[in-house]
Amino acid sequence: MSLPAFQQAERIAVYLANDGELSPNELITHCWLEGKAVYLPVLHPFTAGNLVFVQYHPDSSMLANKYGIAEPRVSSASLCPLPLLDIVFTPLVAFDNAGNRMGMGGGYYDRTLRPVVRDQLKVQVIGLAHDCQQCDALPVQPWDIPMHKIITPGKIFHFQSR
């Protein structure tokens, strides 16, 4: 929460922890208290394998997706296009010393975040992880989206000009 990018951000995408992921609940509550708009990833209703970002409030009506993960109901008024987000916090399974992220294997974040690299969007992509999820090196595919930063309870990792 002390990162300048976070302090300046107005629209932040985050996730609800699932299957042992580092919980961002404290971060979400802090965002609401600071008046920041919070968005959650939702499985894209028309484009398989992609995500859309839907505004999330304490009283949002939630539905379980096909993986059993709670998502806010989608409405056109609650969507935030990727280029308008300031930060996207992602969960991960593992990360390496070069800022590469391994997800759950579905490729949802990589497909959705492709424009960050391709179009050089100013969106900061930050992974949240447990300290024990760090490894020396991960296999990298051309479609993998590297992180700008990875934050664990013990350290903040910054990566070169991403």
Automatic annotation (TrEMBL):
EC annotation from Swiss-Prot or TrEMBL: 6.3.3.2
Cofactor section: Mg(2+)
Family statement drawn from the similarity comment of this UniProt entry: Belongs to the 5-formyltetrahydrofolate cyclo-ligase family.
Residues that coordinate or bind ATP: 101-109
Chain positions recorded as substrate binding sites: 16, 21
Keyword tags: ATP-binding, Magnesium, Metal-binding, Nucleotide-binding
Species for this entry: Bowmanella pacifica
GO biological process: folic acid-containing compound biosynthetic process; tetrahydrofolate interconversion
Lineage of origin: Bacteria, Pseudomonadati, Pseudomonadota, Gammaproteobacteria, Alteromonadales
GO molecular function term, any single one: ATP binding
The protein's enzyme class: ligase
Reactions it catalyzes: (6S)-5-formyl-5,6,7,8-tetrahydrofolate + ATP = (6R)-5,10-methenyltetrahydrofolate + ADP + phosphate
UniProt-recorded name of the protein: 5-formyltetrahydrofolate cyclo-ligase
A family per Pfam: 5-FTHF_cyc-lig
InterPro entries membership: FTHF_cligase, FTHF_cligase-like_sf, NagB/RpiA_transferase-like
